[in-house]
């Protein structure tokens, strides 16, 4: 496995949250086999998975030096990384008991009520897309001028977006919101759920462990299968309303004793590839980024010409709103919009926090099939100009941090500056003035204390 | 004894640095702690936002920008 797929497997956001949990909380979580599976499948780097698999059936603890013998000497960095993740998640101690995957209710109790209409995958996809697009549309809708906004999302979701700093008090999109918007759907769902996880415990008196284990459980459910709500805890029942509002689950009506996970839920803890393979399924799905409301969801629709004109074949208000963030739209037709990338429009977007690279990758990811025939996909002049517009607005780069001065000896200076450089904290140095600038100081401080101890 | 000073490192073109130095001199050395080299300044943290703002204003006044040709 190469490095890029490695980073996709280890979901950075969720991993961070888990690492922040205490040992006892994690132990509670690992009691649920579905959680253990989700953590194993989705969070761990590949090497960590291998180590866990190998150790799973060992009766006794085994020596760290034996572990070293398994790893090629040139991969020590990867090994350290894997071990760090494992120990911060307290997997090293608890993995064995948690992985005893017995037949357990934590994978959901399937239920198919007789006499009820069959909810097929198409309805689920439709529900998930509609709800999720409403959320996204609510976020961008505010910035679009002249396009009528209609959003059906609940007040709870709105305040959640505000808590997550995706929109500000007046409902206008923020910088974090933009970054959120341009992520792929799976990452978006995770970001939102993590905001939920961070705020629900204090606002709604929910137990974070239960929330998280429910989220992980959703990830192991099967699409198109109904599940009973009977064995859920009260916290988890409370969550159903919110999750239905996000489009992560579907309930025919709020009072029914069962729910259906949508594609947003079932791909939560699987590898990123699950999203791509689902795109190949006969039912239209949305795979990456902001796919459209129309049937041809994952098909590209944007044409950019060398003269900065932009044509987008779309009817989706969401897509139009996103384009309007960085394009000067001029005409709206029944099946397309035309516009132009101008310096003003691009710099306005940059001032709001979108980066040039985000714009470029959005345009490239949604390029019309006709554009994909040429390489590079986007006209180089346009790509370069967007980057130049960004640089132009940003004449000076600022880094806050600490200036280290007044080193007593040349040796002390050299030693410390070299250390700062290897750990990647060094921003600027001047050998002549014997001073250097770092963006964080804690590590340097402890290094210098150690150094004095040695001297 | 080694000291650590908190502040903001500003890196820019020499031309921009000249403008920043002038802004600093005009305001009675309110912004800059030290002039480090031709492209680097060490600036008081609390003053960075206002320095950026002043630079923007100055550039707008002095540099003539091509207006967008927005004709369709």
Automatic annotation (TrEMBL), chain A:
It comes from the Eukaryota. This is RNA polymerase II transcription factor B 52 kDa subunit. It comes from Coniosporium tulheliwenetii.
From TrEMBL, chain B:
This is General transcription and DNA repair factor IIH subunit TFB5. The keyword Amino-acid biosynthesis does not apply. Component of the 7-subunit TFIIH core complex. Keywords: DNA damage, DNA repair, Nucleus, Transcription, Transcription regulation. The lineage of its organism: Eukaryota, Fungi, Dikarya, Ascomycota, Pezizomycotina. The keyword DNA repair applies. In NER, TFIIH acts by opening DNA around the lesion to allow the excision of the damaged oligonucleotide and its replacement by a new DNA fragment. In transcription, TFIIH has an essential role in transcription initiation. When the pre-initiation complex (PIC) has been established, TFIIH is required for promoter opening and promoter escape. Pfam families: Tfb5. Belongs to the TFB5 family. SMART domains: Tbf5. It comes from the Eukaryota. It comes from Coniosporium apollinis. It is found in: Nucleus. InterPro entries: TFB5-like_sf, TFIIH_TTDA/Tfb5.
